[in-house]
Target: DUF5683 domain-containing protein
Amino acid sequence: MRNIAALFSILMPGFGQIYNGQFIKGVFFIIVEHFDNAFGHINEAIHLDFNGLHQQAVEVTHFDYMLFYPGFYVYCVWDAWYHAKPNADKTKTAIPFIIGGFLGVMGAIFANRLPIPTLTVAMLMIIPMICGMIVFRDQ
Model:
C-alpha cells in the first residue's frame, strides 16, 4: 500500500495523497505542481529533451520555477509514502528522499552540462527515493 501511494505521487504529485484519503492536501499539491510545471515550462523541456533537442530543452526552461520543482516533487512522494503507513518512523525514512531532492536541484543547476538533462535529473531524484522505499519498507 505504501509503494502504491508513492507510485501515484511519482506519476503525478498529489495523487498519492488522494489515494491515502488526504483529498484537500492532494488537490493542493496537484494545483501547485501544475502552476510550477506551467511557469517553469518543465513538460516542454521534457518533450524537447526526449526528442534530441537537449540545448533547446535547457533554453526553454525557466529556472526560477524549475529549481523549486525537485524538492517539491520529492516531498510529495515522501509524504504519500510516509502517510500510507500508520505510526511510521519519520526521522530515518526521510533521508533518501532528502538526498533525491538535493541531487535533483544540483542536476537542475548543472543541466546545461548534462547530455540528457531532464532524464538525468529525473533519475537523480527517483533512484534514491526507490532505494529508500526498499530499505525502509518495514519502518
Summary: The chain has ten helices and no strands. The two ends are 13 Å apart (CA to CA).
